[in-house]
Amino acid sequence: MENLLSPLDAAFHALADPTRRAVVSRLMRGPAPVKELAEPFDMGLPSFLKHLRVLEKDGLISSEKIGRVRTCRVNAEKLAGAETWLSEQRALWQARTDRLADYVETRMPMEPEDVG
Amino acid sequence: MENLLSPLDAAFHALADPTRRAVVSRLMRGPAPVKELAEPFDMGLPSFLKHLRVLEKDGLISSEKIGRVRTCRVNAEKLAGAETWLSEQRALWQARTDRLADYVETRMPMEPEDVG
User: Fold this and answer.
1) How distant is the Cα of B42 from the closest Cα of chain A, in angstroms?
2) Which H, E and C letters describe A46-110, residue by residue?
3) Angstrom distance (rounded) from CA B116 to CA B112
4) Cβ of residue A96 closer than 8 Å to a chain B Cβ
5) How far is the C-alpha of B62 from the C-alpha of A56, rounded, in Å?
6) What are phi and psi for residue B68, nearest 5 degrees?
7) pLDDT digits 0-9 by tens, A41-92
8) pTM
9) Nearest-by-Cβ selection for A96 from B13, B17, B29
């Protein structure tokens, strides 16, 4: 049931919804049956199951049915890729900020009229 | 042109596409005109502009037109919220892993037959 999106596309897509983020957060504390996962949400079970299917298709969770109980668990490593991408962007931003600061500091004592 | 999504919904939605992520990455190095941003992509300008509009609507970039040139810049703080959320999830996961490890370590010397 994997989809054709890249892992990053899929992770960000899955997380672009408050219900799905709340489910991921809950599963980060440990696996849980669907019934327990659905309980906090003020929505019908079919709507809730749609969100679970998106999470499963995007690879963020897996589920297994034993007897009559389907239990979900999170695939935490899928979130790690998204976090790594974001921290790389922050590093690019930081490098730029550092360069700007160096530039200003280098020029300021010599040519104060250029800074404004 | 802000949309009605929450900041986290909007950030994750905007990042769920490789072209939009590449634009964000480029802008993390500094502002750039639309024409320069579009150059690396093998797609028509109208399709590319759609991606820019999604990024702007989701609050990840801003743009300003001076004369005939529209220049884009990234709103880096919008990505910070998404990164914070992901690092909180990692902390939940880590806490759980630590609890499991403690549990196993505490029980192992006493009741080896329970571990398997």
Assistant:
1) 18
2) HHHHHHHHHHHHCCCEEEEEECCEEEEEECHHHHHHHHHHHHHHHHHHHHHHHHHHHHHHHHCCC
3) 8
4) yes
5) 34
6) -100, 5
7) 999 999 999 999 999 999 999 999 999 999 999 999 999 999 999 999 999 9
8) 0.86
9) B29
Residue B69 phi/psi, 5° resolution?
Answer: -110, 120
Which residues, numbered 5 to 64 in chain A, qualify as contacts with chain B under a Cβ-Cβ cut-off of 8 Å? 5-6, 8-10, 12-13, 15-18, 21, 24-25, 28-30
**pLDDT per residue over B72-100, tens digit each?**
999 999 999 999 999 999 999 999 988 88
Residue of A70, A51, A28, A23 whose CA lies nearest to B92: A28
Nearest CA in chain B to A8: B16
Place of tokens 């974001």: A86
* Number of other residues whose CB lies within 10 A of the CB of residue B106: 10
